[in-house]
Amino acid sequence: VFKFLGAISVDLGKDRIKPFLPTILTPLYRELNSTYAEQDPTLKNLSQEIIELLKKLVGLEAFSVAFSSVQKQANQKRAVRKKQRALQAVANPDIAARRKLKRHKNKAETKKRKIEFLRPSYKAKKARSHGLKDLAMVE
After folding, report:
1. Are the beta carbons of 99 and 106 closer than 8 angstroms?
2. What's phi and psi for 75, nearest 5 deg?
3. CA–CA gap between residue 19 and residue 43 (Å, rounded)
4. Residue 50: which of 71, 27, 70 has the closest Cα?
5. Of the four, 16, 33, 92, 134, which is 20 to 30 A from 57 by CA?
6. How far apart are CA 18 and CA 2, in angstroms?
7. Could you tell me if residue 13 is left (phi over 0), alpha (psi between -120 and 50 degrees) or otherwise beta?
8. Which segments does the entry list as coiled coil (predicted)?
9. Terminal alpha carbon distance of the chain
10. Average pLDDT estimate for 43-70
11. DSSP structure class, residue 38
């Protein structure tokens, strides 16, 4: 998809690409700023190359305006999601408690996996599965 975006931007040229610049930059920005554990470095490099190509094609000023708008939009979305999560904790405490329990359970499993990776001889105890009992609110 990134190669396609680069090819389209080169094909359209300087004047016709400007209205579509924020649309093209959105996935590139998302890839550059992603913090996933299993991130592909080739994708990050490709997005960086396409951003450099767009910078040369459109000019630094127009590119900067479009890039800052994409950045601002992404930050606003993050803020809205964070606010909704905080409001949900107050409005629906049972859902928030379930989410918190699940997060703590995943954290413990990740810790066990990390210890097993660092010390292969060590075997962590696996928690018994109680099905719905794990999701129930602790009293």
Report:
1. no
2. -65, -40
3. 25
4. 27
5. 33
6. 17
7. left
8. none
9. 50
10. 92
11. T
Decide: 134 and 105 in contact? Cβ < 8 Å. yes
Instruction: Provide the residue ranges of all domains of the chain, joining segments of one domain with +.
Output: 1-78, 92-122
Collapsed DSSP state (helix, strand, coil) of residue 19: helix
Q: Coil, strand or helix: which one is 122?
A: coil
What average pLDDT does the structure give for the chain? Answer: 86
138 or 116: which carries more pLDDT confidence?
116
50, 2 Cβ separation under 8 angstroms: yes
- Report the predicted TM-score, pTM, of the whole model to 2 decimal places: 0.65
Burial class of residue 81, CB neighbours in 10 A (0-12, 13-18, 19+): exposed
Which residues are CB-contacts of 31 (< 8 A; sequence separation ≥ 6)?
Answer: 2, 43, 44, 47
Cα–Cα distance between 8 and 48 in angstroms, integer? 16
